[in-house]
Write a structure and sequence with these properties.
The complex is a heterodimer of chains A (247) and B (289).
Chain A: E1 13-19, E2 21-22, E3 25-26, E4 31-35, E5 40-44, H1 51-58, E6 66-71, E7 77-80, H2 94-100, H3 113-116, H4 118-127, H5 143-155, E8 161-165, H6 173-190, E9 193-197, H7 204-207, E10 210-215, E11 220-225, H8 226-230, H9 233-239
Parallel strand pairs in A: 5-9, 5-10, 7-8, 8-9
Antiparallel strand pairs in A: 1-4, 1-6, 2-3, 10-11
Chain B: H1 3-13, H2 15-41, H3 45-69, H4 78-89, H5 91-95, H6 102-123, H7 130-138, H8 146-175, H9 177-182, H10 187-209, H11 211-228, H12 232-257, H13 261-288
Helix pairs in contact in B: 2-8, 2-10, 2-11, 2-12, 3-4, 3-6, 3-10, 3-11, 4-10, 8-10, 10-11, 11-12, 11-13, 12-13
Classes of the chains: A alpha/beta (247), B mainly alpha (289).
Chain lengths: 247, 289
C-alpha cells in the first residue's frame, strides 16, 4: 500500500479550537494541538473525564461542538477501540482480522483489492510478531496476542496516525510493557503518530513523547510535551503525585 | 423395493410437477442462508421473525385491498405488499443502532405482534383467501406458480450478486462499525442496503414459501455455519449451501413423509444446526483433553 499512496504530511492530525461534547454542549474546553509523525501522545484523565469523547471526536465518530479536526488526506487513520467493542462470536482468523484493515472508502467493491495487498498483510504480521498466529482463530488468543493482531490490522494500510482506546486494560504488567514497546518500535520505524488513551501511568511516562490531560469536572485540558504535562499542577491535583518522564 | 423408495421414485419421475416449488425453496434457502450470517452474528434473530410477520401482513393487506377496492393482483401484487411491509419493518434496525438493546427489541416485538395480529385479523375479512393466509403463515404451499418462480430466480440472483460483490463492506459495518467509519466506508448506505436486501429476501420468501420456513432458513443454516467455519466468507458460503440443502431436502422430505413443506424445511435446517452444534461441542471436548 505504501507504494500506492503519496508521501504523507508530517502532521497527520491538527486540532484547532476543537470542542468535544454531546448535544451541542461542550464537555471540555477547546483543544489546540498538532500531532506530528513520530510522536506518541498519551490521552490521560480519570474515568469519565472526557477521554473517549475527545478521542471519538478526533476520529469523526462524534460531531464536534466547535472547532476543527484537520486530517491529512494523503494517509489513513486507524482506530483500535476498547477490547469490549470486539465480538468474539464473529468467526475470524488472525489473517482475516488484519485483512479487514486494508479496506478504505469504496475499496470493498474491488474483489482483487485484498489480494493485491498480500505483501502489506505479511509485513504487518511480521512487524507485530503475529506471523506464526496468522491461521489461528482470533478468539483463541490471549489478550496480549489479540492486541498485537489489532495493531497489525491498524498498520496494514500504512497509516499516518493510529488511535488506541485503553489497549492494555486487561493485560498483566509484562504484556502491557510488551505492548508499549511494540508501539514505540512502530512509531520509530514507520515514523508513525500514535494517540493512546490509557490509565497506565507506569508505562505512559516512559513511552510517550507528549500528553493531553483532560478533566471535564475542572474544565481543564493540558497538552504538550510529556514532561510538561507530568509536572503540571493539574496532573498533581488529579493523580496526587508528580511523575517523571524518561528522557 | 419398499414404499419409501417408490415414493421418492415417483417424486423424481414426476419432478417437473414439483420443480418450481422445490427449486424456489432451494434458491431462497441459498440467499436467506447466506444473509442469515449477518442476522445471527448481529443478534438480529428477532428481526428475521418480525420481517416474516410484517411480510405476511403485507400480503394479507394486498389481498384485502384487492377485495375491498376491486383491484386486480396486477395492480397491487401481494409480493409488492410484502416487500413494502418488510422495508418498513426493517427501519428500526437501521436507525436504532445507537439504542440497540431493550428499546430496539421492544420495537421489533411491536412489529412482530402487529404483523401477526394484523394478518390474522385481515384473514377474517378475506375468507376466499384464507387458504393463502394459512399457507403464508405455516409454509404449507406445495405448488409455486411459474411467475413466482421467475420472481424468486431474479431476486435471488440479484441478492447473491450484491452480497458477493459487497460482502467485505457489509461485514465491516456489521462487526467493526467504528473502524469502518474511521476508514471512510459509506457506513449508513451499506447498513441500509444490507438490511433492505434482507427485507427483500424475507418478503419474497414469505410470499412464496411462507413465514415459518423463511424464518428458519434465515437463522438455522447461518447458526450451523458460524459454529463450524473459521471466518465470515466461509460461513457465508456454507450457510448458503446449507440453506439450499434445507430448502430442497425439506421439500423432498415433505413429499416422502407427507409433511407440510414449511415444517419439513424447518426440521431439516434444525437438524443441520443441531449437527453443527454437536460437531463443535465434540471438537471442543477433544481439543480440551
Amino acid at each position: 500500500m505504501s507504494k500506492d499512496t503519496p508521501r504523507r504530511s508530517s502532521v497527520p492530525v491538527e486540532l484547532t479550537g476543537l470542542e468535544a461534547g454531546y448535544g451541542g454542549h461542550g464537555l471540555l474546553p477547546a483543544v489546540d494541538l498538532e500531532i506530528e509523525s513520530g510522536q506518541m501522545w498519551a490521552l490521560i484523565g480519570r474515568n469519565g473525564s472526557g477521554k473517549t469523547t475527545l478521542l471519538r471526536t478526533i476520529l469523526g465518530l462524534l460531531p464536534s461542538v466547535g472547532g476543527l479536526v484537520i486530517r491529512d488526506k494523503s494517509s489513513c487513520v486507524s482506530y483500535i477501540p476498547q477490547r469490549t467493542d470486539y465480538d468474539l462470536a464473529v468467526p475470524a482468523r488472525v489473517i482475516d482480522i488484519v485483512r479487514e484493515g486494508l479496506d478504505h472508502h469504496r475499496s470493498f467493491l474491488s474483489p482483487f483489492f485484498v489480494g493485491r495487498h498480500a505483501a502489506d498483510v505479511q509485513r504487518a504480521l511480521e512487524e507485530t510478531g503475529t506471523k506464526e498466529l496468522a491461521h489461528r482463530r482470533f478468539r483463541e488468543l490471549s489478550e496480549g496476542q489479540r492486541q498485537r493482531v489489532l495493531i497489525a490490522k491498524a498498520i496494514v494500510c500504512d497509516p499516518g496516525l493510529i488511535v488506541l482506546d485503553e489497549p492494555t486494560s486487561a493485560m498483566d504488567p509484562l504484556a502491557e510493557r510488551s505492548m508499549f514497546e511494540l508501539l514505540d518500535r512502530l512509531r520509530r520505524s514507520r515514523d508513525l503518530a500514535v494517540l493512546v488513551a490509557s490509565h497506565s501511568m507506569s508505562m505512559l511516562p516512559q513511552y510517550s513523547t507528549h500528553a493531553v490531560l483532560v478533566d471535564a469536572d475542572a474544565q481543564q485540558v493540558v497538552a504538550g510535551p510529556i514532561h510538561e504535562v507530568l509536572e503540571s499542577e493539574a496532573f498533581r491535583r488529579i493523580y496526587g503525585f508528580r511523575a517523571a518522564a524518561e528522557t | 423395493m419398499n414404499t419409501e423408495d417408490t415414493s421418492l421414485r415417483v417424486f423424481f419421475e414426476s419432478f417437473e410437477l414439483f420443480a418450481d416449488a422445490a427449486w424456489s425453496g432451494t434458491l431462497l434457502g441459498l440467499a436467506l442462508g447466506a444473509m442469515g450470517v449477518y442476522i445471527v452474528l448481529r443478534r438480529l434473530v428477532f428481526l428475521a421473525a418480525a420481517l416474516g410477520q410484517a411480510s405476511s401482513l403485507g400480503v394479507a393487506s394486498a389481498f384485502w385491498l384487492e377485495r375491498r377496492l376491486g383491484l386486480s393482483p396486477e395492480h397491487f401484487p401481494p409480493t409488492l405488499g410484502a416487500a413494502i411491509a418488510a422495508a418498513i419493518a426493517v427501519m428500526p434496525a437501521a436507525f436504532e443502532r445507537k439504542r440497540a438493546g431493550a428499546h430496539r427489541e421492544g420495537l421489533l416485538g411491536l412489529i412482530y405482534l402487529v404483523g401477526a395480529a394484523g394478518t390474522l385479523a385481515l384473514g377474517t375479512r378475506i375468507v376466499q383467501d384464507l387458504h393463502d393466509i394459512d399457507s403464508l403463515l405455516l409454509g404449507s404451499a406445495v405448488a409455486v406458480l411459474p411467475e413466482q418462480f421467475r420472481l424468486v430466480f431474479v431476486v435471488v440472483t440479484l441478492l447473491v450478486l450484491l452480497h458477493a460483490l459487497a460482502w467485505r463492506g457489509f461485514a465491516a459495518v456489521s462487526f467493526d462499525r467504528a473502524g469502518a467509519r474511521v476508514r471512510g466506508l459509506p457506513v449508513r448506505s451499506l447498513e441500509l442496503v444490507l438490511l433492505l436486501s434482507i427485507a427483500l429476501g424475507v418478503s419474497v420468501s414469505t410470499r412464496v414459501i411462507g413465514a415459518l420456513p423463511s424464518f428458519a432458513l434465515s437463522v438455522l443454516p447461518a447458526l450451523a455455519a458460524t459454529l463450524v467455519c473459521a471466518n465470515v466468507p466461509r460461513a457465508l458460503v456454507l450457510a448458503g449451501l446449507l440453506g439450499a440443502v434445507s430448502g430442497f431436502v425439506g421439500y423432498v422430505l415433505a413429499f416422502w413423509a407427507r409433511l407440510p413443506v414449511g415444517a419439513a424445511q424447518t426440521l431439516v435446517a434444525a437438524g443441520l444446526a443441531g449437527g453443527a452444534w454437536l460437531f463443535t461441542a465434540s471438537d471442543w471436548r477433544r481439543r480440551s483433553r
